Amino acid sequence: EAGATESTQELITRNLVPMLKATVTTTLPLTAISFVIGLAIALAVALARISSIRLLSLLARFYVSIVRGTPLLLQLFIVFYALPQFGVVISPFPAAVGAFSINVGGYAAEIVRAAILGVPKGQWEAAETIGMGYRTTLQRIVLPQALRTAVPPLSNTLISLVKDTSLASTILVTELLRVAQLAAAPTFDFFALYSVAAVYYWIICIVLSSVQGRLETRLDRYVAR
After folding, report:
1. Does residue 19 contact residue 182 with C-beta atoms inside 8 Å?
2. Which of 38, 93, 113, 131 fits as disulfide partner to 101, beta carbons 3.0 to 4.6 Å?
3. What's the DSSP call for residue 172?
4. Main-chain dihedrals φ then ψ at residue 175, nearest 5 degrees
């Protein structure tokens, strides 16, 4: 039993750095890139949802419905395994980015839309009175106010995305969970390495939660009491 314990400890020690490297070079970039692209999609979809152009609004509704009504794993499989049947071949990392961005866009779009609609209509009217156009009003008046409302739910979306990146291992992306799987396969000591991977994910989420709290406090300074 002592030998087995020592072997497990050695296995963990030997793979701490490779797992950390996978976290820094793959998991975190995958999360960051997907979230930024997803936010851009979300803003476009949210504006389309509140648009007075009915067709545009319906298309945005359809997009949100499809994304929220299908599993993320299935979306990954469609992008990576199904699209090649139509001649669209995407390597693992870009495929994961595409699938995660589309997924984040669908969920975050409703958050952004609710935040925009939460800004009092008087703000729009006041901006129109002083001659501001629609785009300028959004950039300078509405979106800054909507940001404070959207930060907590968007932060939760980001934290969820960190954990969802583990699904990228199913399409051969060598991220944190994939490294843990490969390292544990020869000895079948999955519990030990999966526990280490869980700690890594946990630490990332704690850091992001801390950043979220600081950001909310910072934004509260600009709110009239």
Report:
1. no
2. 38
3. T
4. -100, -165
pTM reported for the whole predicted model: 0.89
Residues in the chain: 225
CB atoms within 10 A of CB 109: 27
Which tops the pLDDT comparison, 132 or 219? 132
Q: What does the alpha-carbon distance between residue 189 and residue 187 come to, in Å, rounded to a whole number?
A: 5
**8 contacts: CB under 8 Å, gap ≥ 6:** 189, 192
Are residues 220 and 214 in contact, defined by beta-carbon separation less than 8 angstroms?
Answer: no
Q: Which alpha helices (H) appear in 23-142, and where do they start and end?
A: 28-49, 54-69, 72-77, 92-117, 121-129, 134-137
Name which of 69, 64, 89 is nearest 79 in CA terms.
Answer: 89
